[in-house]
Design a protein that fits this description.
By secondary structure, this protein is an alpha/beta fold. Helices cover 31% and strands 15% of the residues. The longest helix is centred in the C-terminal third of the chain and has 18 residues, at 266-283.
Protein backbone atom coordinates (compact mmCIF):
# COMPACT_ATOMS: atom_id res chain seq x y z
CA UNK A 1 0.00 0.00 0.00
CA UNK A 2 1.00 3.63 -0.36
CA UNK A 3 0.62 6.05 2.55
CA UNK A 4 2.05 9.45 3.39
CA UNK A 5 4.19 9.54 0.28
CA UNK A 6 5.86 6.14 0.43
CA UNK A 7 5.20 2.40 0.07
CA UNK A 8 4.54 -0.09 2.86
CA UNK A 9 4.13 -3.87 2.70
CA UNK A 10 1.77 -3.85 5.68
CA UNK A 11 -0.92 -6.56 5.61
CA UNK A 12 -4.54 -5.60 6.29
CA UNK A 13 -5.38 -5.73 9.97
CA UNK A 14 -1.86 -5.01 11.22
CA UNK A 15 -2.52 -3.06 14.42
CA UNK A 16 0.58 -4.03 16.33
CA UNK A 17 2.76 -0.93 15.91
CA UNK A 18 2.97 -0.45 19.72
CA UNK A 19 5.00 -3.68 19.63
CA UNK A 20 6.76 -3.51 16.24
CA UNK A 21 6.51 -0.76 13.64
CA UNK A 22 6.65 -1.73 9.95
CA UNK A 23 9.24 0.16 7.89
CA UNK A 24 8.50 1.92 4.61
CA UNK A 25 10.13 0.39 1.55
CA UNK A 26 13.15 2.74 1.41
CA UNK A 27 14.06 1.87 5.01
CA UNK A 28 13.87 -1.88 4.39
CA UNK A 29 15.82 -1.46 1.16
CA UNK A 30 18.58 0.47 2.90
CA UNK A 31 18.97 -2.29 5.49
CA UNK A 32 18.84 -5.02 2.83
CA UNK A 33 21.56 -3.27 0.84
CA UNK A 34 23.72 -3.06 3.95
CA UNK A 35 23.13 -6.76 4.67
CA UNK A 36 24.21 -7.55 1.12
CA UNK A 37 27.42 -5.55 1.56
CA UNK A 38 28.05 -7.48 4.78
CA UNK A 39 27.28 -10.81 3.08
CA UNK A 40 29.72 -10.11 0.26
CA UNK A 41 32.55 -8.82 2.43
CA UNK A 42 32.22 -5.24 1.23
CA UNK A 43 31.48 -3.75 4.66
CA UNK A 44 34.01 -1.48 6.36
CA UNK A 45 33.32 -0.43 9.97
CA UNK A 46 33.86 3.26 9.41
CA UNK A 47 31.13 3.45 6.79
CA UNK A 48 28.47 3.24 9.49
CA UNK A 49 29.48 6.50 11.13
CA UNK A 50 27.51 8.44 8.53
CA UNK A 51 24.33 6.60 9.50
CA UNK A 52 24.89 7.37 13.18
CA UNK A 53 25.30 11.04 12.32
CA UNK A 54 22.10 10.99 10.26
CA UNK A 55 20.01 9.14 12.86
CA UNK A 56 21.26 11.38 15.66
CA UNK A 57 20.37 14.45 13.63
CA UNK A 58 16.99 12.98 12.73
CA UNK A 59 16.06 12.37 16.34
CA UNK A 60 17.25 15.85 17.27
CA UNK A 61 15.01 17.38 14.59
CA UNK A 62 12.08 15.38 15.92
CA UNK A 63 12.56 16.95 19.35
CA UNK A 64 13.78 20.33 18.12
CA UNK A 65 17.10 20.06 19.94
CA UNK A 66 20.83 20.26 19.20
CA UNK A 67 22.22 16.94 17.83
CA UNK A 68 25.25 17.44 20.09
CA UNK A 69 22.92 16.88 23.04
CA UNK A 70 21.71 13.48 21.75
CA UNK A 71 23.32 10.16 22.67
CA UNK A 72 22.75 6.93 20.76
CA UNK A 73 22.07 3.56 22.34
CA UNK A 74 20.46 0.18 21.75
CA UNK A 75 17.41 0.32 24.00
CA UNK A 76 15.49 2.75 26.17
CA UNK A 77 16.41 1.01 29.44
CA UNK A 78 20.11 1.03 28.61
CA UNK A 79 19.98 4.79 28.12
CA UNK A 80 17.79 5.40 31.17
CA UNK A 81 20.44 3.58 33.21
CA UNK A 82 22.82 6.47 32.52
CA UNK A 83 20.42 8.65 34.49
CA UNK A 84 19.36 6.21 37.20
CA UNK A 85 22.88 5.07 38.06
CA UNK A 86 24.01 8.65 38.63
CA UNK A 87 21.45 9.40 41.33
CA UNK A 88 22.95 9.74 44.81
CA UNK A 89 21.68 7.79 47.83
CA UNK A 90 18.48 9.18 49.22
CA UNK A 91 17.09 10.32 45.87
CA UNK A 92 13.29 10.17 45.70
CA UNK A 93 11.87 9.22 42.30
CA UNK A 94 8.21 9.56 41.33
CA UNK A 95 6.79 7.26 38.64
CA UNK A 96 3.43 6.41 37.12
CA UNK A 97 1.72 3.32 38.42
CA UNK A 98 1.99 0.48 35.91
CA UNK A 99 4.42 2.29 33.61
CA UNK A 100 6.62 0.25 31.30
CA UNK A 101 9.43 -1.28 33.32
CA UNK A 102 12.19 0.04 31.05
CA UNK A 103 11.35 3.38 32.66
CA UNK A 104 11.14 2.24 36.28
CA UNK A 105 13.48 -0.77 36.62
CA UNK A 106 16.73 1.20 36.09
CA UNK A 107 15.78 3.46 39.01
CA UNK A 108 14.58 0.59 41.20
CA UNK A 109 17.89 -1.20 40.54
CA UNK A 110 19.78 1.63 42.25
CA UNK A 111 19.77 0.55 45.94
CA UNK A 112 20.05 4.12 47.17
CA UNK A 113 16.96 5.32 45.35
CA UNK A 114 13.36 5.20 46.59
CA UNK A 115 10.78 4.89 43.81
CA UNK A 116 7.16 5.80 44.49
CA UNK A 117 4.38 4.95 42.04
CA UNK A 118 1.14 6.94 41.80
CA UNK A 119 -1.72 6.86 39.30
CA UNK A 120 -0.81 8.69 36.09
CA UNK A 121 -3.63 11.20 36.57
CA UNK A 122 -2.16 12.20 39.95
CA UNK A 123 1.46 12.46 38.82
CA UNK A 124 1.71 16.25 38.56
CA UNK A 125 0.04 16.93 41.91
CA UNK A 126 2.36 14.48 43.69
CA UNK A 127 5.67 15.91 42.42
CA UNK A 128 6.33 17.93 45.58
CA UNK A 129 8.73 16.05 47.84
CA UNK A 130 10.45 14.17 45.01
CA UNK A 131 13.78 14.80 43.30
CA UNK A 132 13.11 13.13 39.94
CA UNK A 133 10.00 12.26 37.94
CA UNK A 134 10.28 9.45 35.36
CA UNK A 135 7.32 8.72 33.11
CA UNK A 136 6.34 7.58 29.63
CA UNK A 137 4.77 10.31 27.51
CA UNK A 138 2.28 7.71 26.27
CA UNK A 139 1.53 4.66 28.36
CA UNK A 140 2.45 1.41 26.63
CA UNK A 141 -0.42 -0.65 28.04
CA UNK A 142 -3.36 1.54 27.09
CA UNK A 143 -2.24 4.71 25.30
CA UNK A 144 -2.99 7.23 28.05
CA UNK A 145 -1.09 10.47 27.50
CA UNK A 146 0.71 12.18 30.37
CA UNK A 147 -0.31 15.77 31.11
CA UNK A 148 3.08 17.24 30.23
CA UNK A 149 2.24 20.94 30.73
CA UNK A 150 1.00 20.18 34.25
CA UNK A 151 4.02 18.00 34.94
CA UNK A 152 6.41 20.68 33.70
CA UNK A 153 4.84 23.34 35.90
CA UNK A 154 4.84 21.09 38.95
CA UNK A 155 8.44 19.97 38.42
CA UNK A 156 9.69 23.52 37.99
CA UNK A 157 7.85 24.63 41.12
CA UNK A 158 9.30 21.72 43.13
CA UNK A 159 12.78 21.85 41.62
CA UNK A 160 12.45 18.25 40.43
CA UNK A 161 14.24 16.82 37.40
CA UNK A 162 12.17 15.05 34.73
CA UNK A 163 12.92 12.05 32.52
CA UNK A 164 10.46 11.35 29.73
CA UNK A 165 10.24 8.13 27.71
CA UNK A 166 8.82 9.02 24.29
CA UNK A 167 9.03 5.49 22.85
CA UNK A 168 5.25 5.15 22.43
CA UNK A 169 4.84 8.79 21.36
CA UNK A 170 7.66 9.80 19.01
CA UNK A 171 6.58 9.30 15.43
CA UNK A 172 2.88 10.07 15.78
CA UNK A 173 2.47 12.61 18.59
CA UNK A 174 3.93 16.10 18.00
CA UNK A 175 6.28 16.67 20.91
CA UNK A 176 7.25 19.70 22.98
CA UNK A 177 9.65 18.03 25.38
CA UNK A 178 12.99 19.85 25.07
CA UNK A 179 12.32 21.32 28.51
CA UNK A 180 12.75 17.92 30.20
CA UNK A 181 16.13 17.06 31.67
CA UNK A 182 16.25 13.82 29.70
CA UNK A 183 14.16 12.40 26.87
CA UNK A 184 14.63 8.83 25.72
CA UNK A 185 13.03 6.84 22.90
CA UNK A 186 13.54 3.50 21.18
CA UNK A 187 13.16 3.45 17.41
CA UNK A 188 11.53 0.14 16.53
CA UNK A 189 7.92 1.12 17.11
CA UNK A 190 6.41 4.37 15.81
CA UNK A 191 9.76 5.53 14.39
CA UNK A 192 9.71 2.61 11.94
CA UNK A 193 13.33 1.64 12.55
CA UNK A 194 15.01 -1.71 13.24
CA UNK A 195 15.29 -2.88 16.81
CA UNK A 196 18.65 -1.94 18.29
CA UNK A 197 18.52 1.85 18.03
CA UNK A 198 17.53 4.34 20.70
CA UNK A 199 18.37 7.91 21.62
CA UNK A 200 18.71 10.03 24.76
CA UNK A 201 18.49 13.81 24.78
CA UNK A 202 20.47 15.24 27.68
CA UNK A 203 19.80 18.87 28.48
CA UNK A 204 23.13 20.73 28.92
CA UNK A 205 22.59 21.39 32.62
CA UNK A 206 21.80 17.69 33.17
CA UNK A 207 25.07 16.46 31.67
CA UNK A 208 26.94 16.34 34.98
CA UNK A 209 23.99 14.50 36.54
CA UNK A 210 24.29 11.69 33.98
CA UNK A 211 26.74 8.79 34.25
CA UNK A 212 28.26 6.94 31.26
CA UNK A 213 27.58 3.48 32.68
CA UNK A 214 28.65 1.77 29.46
CA UNK A 215 31.63 3.99 28.67
CA UNK A 216 33.23 2.66 25.51
CA UNK A 217 35.45 3.55 22.59
CA UNK A 218 32.61 5.05 20.53
CA UNK A 219 31.98 7.63 23.25
CA UNK A 220 35.54 8.90 22.93
CA UNK A 221 36.46 12.53 22.41
CA UNK A 222 36.75 14.00 18.90
CA UNK A 223 37.16 11.06 16.49
CA UNK A 224 36.17 7.87 18.36
CA UNK A 225 38.49 5.84 16.14
CA UNK A 226 41.40 7.46 17.97
CA UNK A 227 40.21 6.31 21.40
CA UNK A 228 40.11 2.57 20.82
CA UNK A 229 43.21 1.72 22.86
CA UNK A 230 44.60 2.61 26.24
CA UNK A 231 43.92 4.98 29.11
CA UNK A 232 43.30 7.60 30.33
CA UNK A 233 39.54 7.92 30.09
CA UNK A 234 38.77 10.54 27.45
CA UNK A 235 35.08 10.84 26.72
CA UNK A 236 33.39 13.37 24.47
CA UNK A 237 32.41 16.64 26.05
CA UNK A 238 28.87 16.55 24.71
CA UNK A 239 26.14 13.89 24.84
CA UNK A 240 28.28 11.51 22.79
CA UNK A 241 29.91 10.67 26.13
CA UNK A 242 26.85 8.47 26.73
CA UNK A 243 26.92 6.78 23.31
CA UNK A 244 26.86 3.01 23.04
CA UNK A 245 28.86 1.46 20.23
CA UNK A 246 26.23 1.46 17.45
CA UNK A 247 24.21 -1.50 16.27
CA UNK A 248 25.18 -1.01 12.65
CA UNK A 249 22.18 -2.31 10.72
CA UNK A 250 19.78 -0.63 13.13
CA UNK A 251 21.46 2.72 12.53
CA UNK A 252 21.26 2.24 8.76
CA UNK A 253 17.51 1.78 8.98
CA UNK A 254 17.03 4.54 11.55
CA UNK A 255 18.85 7.09 9.40
CA UNK A 256 16.46 6.44 6.51
CA UNK A 257 13.35 6.20 8.72
CA UNK A 258 13.95 9.44 10.61
CA UNK A 259 14.68 11.32 7.41
CA UNK A 260 11.41 10.03 5.98
CA UNK A 261 9.50 11.09 9.10
CA UNK A 262 11.16 14.50 8.95
CA UNK A 263 9.35 15.07 5.67
CA UNK A 264 5.96 14.03 7.04
CA UNK A 265 3.57 16.41 8.77
CA UNK A 266 3.26 14.86 12.24
CA UNK A 267 0.13 16.87 12.89
CA UNK A 268 -1.48 15.03 9.98
CA UNK A 269 -0.15 11.70 11.23
CA UNK A 270 -1.56 12.46 14.67
CA UNK A 271 -4.96 13.35 13.21
CA UNK A 272 -4.93 10.23 11.03
CA UNK A 273 -3.94 7.85 13.83
CA UNK A 274 -6.23 9.23 16.52
CA UNK A 275 -9.07 9.57 14.02
CA UNK A 276 -8.94 5.85 13.28
CA UNK A 277 -8.60 4.92 16.95
CA UNK A 278 -11.50 7.14 17.98
CA UNK A 279 -13.60 5.82 15.08
CA UNK A 280 -13.11 2.31 16.45
CA UNK A 281 -14.10 3.40 19.94
CA UNK A 282 -17.20 5.16 18.60
CA UNK A 283 -18.31 2.06 16.70
CA UNK A 284 -17.89 0.06 19.90
CA UNK A 285 -19.97 2.56 21.85
CA UNK A 286 -17.00 3.89 23.80
CA UNK A 287 -15.88 7.51 24.28
CA UNK A 288 -13.02 8.93 22.17
CA UNK A 289 -9.61 9.16 23.83
CA UNK A 290 -7.46 11.10 21.35
CA UNK A 291 -4.62 8.58 21.35
CA UNK A 292 -3.24 6.15 18.77
CA UNK A 293 -3.22 3.21 21.21
CA UNK A 294 -6.46 1.57 22.31
CA UNK A 295 -6.90 -1.02 25.04
CA UNK A 296 -9.92 -3.27 24.63
CA UNK A 297 -11.70 -5.92 26.67
CA UNK A 298 -11.74 -8.50 23.88
CA UNK A 299 -10.95 -12.12 23.12
CA UNK A 300 -7.48 -12.24 21.52
CA UNK A 301 -8.33 -15.41 19.63
CA UNK A 302 -11.41 -13.85 18.05
CA UNK A 303 -9.35 -10.86 16.96
CA UNK A 304 -6.69 -13.13 15.50
CA UNK A 305 -9.41 -15.07 13.64
CA UNK A 306 -10.60 -11.77 12.20
CA UNK A 307 -7.13 -11.19 10.78
CA UNK A 308 -6.03 -8.64 13.35
CA UNK A 309 -2.42 -8.49 14.52
CA UNK A 310 -2.46 -7.11 18.06
CA UNK A 311 -0.94 -7.69 21.49
CA UNK A 312 -2.21 -8.48 24.97
CA UNK A 313 -1.02 -6.07 27.64
CA UNK A 314 -2.30 -5.86 31.20
CA UNK A 315 -4.91 -8.54 30.49
CA UNK A 316 -6.49 -6.54 27.66
CA UNK A 317 -6.03 -6.47 23.90
CA UNK A 318 -3.92 -3.55 22.71
CA UNK A 319 -4.21 -2.19 19.19
CA UNK A 320 -2.44 0.77 17.67
CA UNK A 321 -3.08 2.82 14.54
CA UNK A 322 -0.22 4.32 12.54
CA UNK A 323 0.13 6.13 9.25
CA UNK A 324 -0.17 2.93 7.19
CA UNK A 325 -3.53 1.93 8.69
CA UNK A 326 -6.92 2.66 7.12
CA UNK A 327 -10.63 2.66 7.92
CA UNK A 328 -10.69 -0.93 6.64
CA UNK A 329 -8.59 -1.93 9.65
CA UNK A 330 -11.23 -0.44 11.94
CA UNK A 331 -13.93 -2.50 10.25
CA UNK A 332 -11.85 -5.66 10.59
CA UNK A 333 -11.83 -5.35 14.38
CA UNK A 334 -15.61 -5.11 14.75
CA UNK A 335 -16.58 -8.77 14.04
CA UNK A 336 -14.65 -9.82 17.15
CA UNK A 337 -17.24 -7.93 19.23
CA UNK A 338 -20.37 -9.30 17.57
Amino acid sequence: MRAFGTDFAVPPGYLNTPSVGVPPAPVAEAVAESVERWRTGATRPGEFDQYVVRSRAGFARLLGVDPARVAIGASASQLVANVAAALPPGTRVLAAEGDFTSVTFPFAANPGVAVTEVPLALLAERVEGHDVVAVSVVQSADGRIADLPALRAAAEAAGAAVLLDATQAAGWLPLDVAWADWVVAAGYKWLLSPRGCAWLHVRPDAHERTRPVAANWYAGEDDPWTTVYGLPLRLAGDARAFDLSPVWLAQVGAAAALEYLDGVDLAQVHAHNTGLADALLEKLGLPPRGTAIVSLDADPERLASAGIAASVRGGRVRVGFHLYNTADDVERVLPAFE
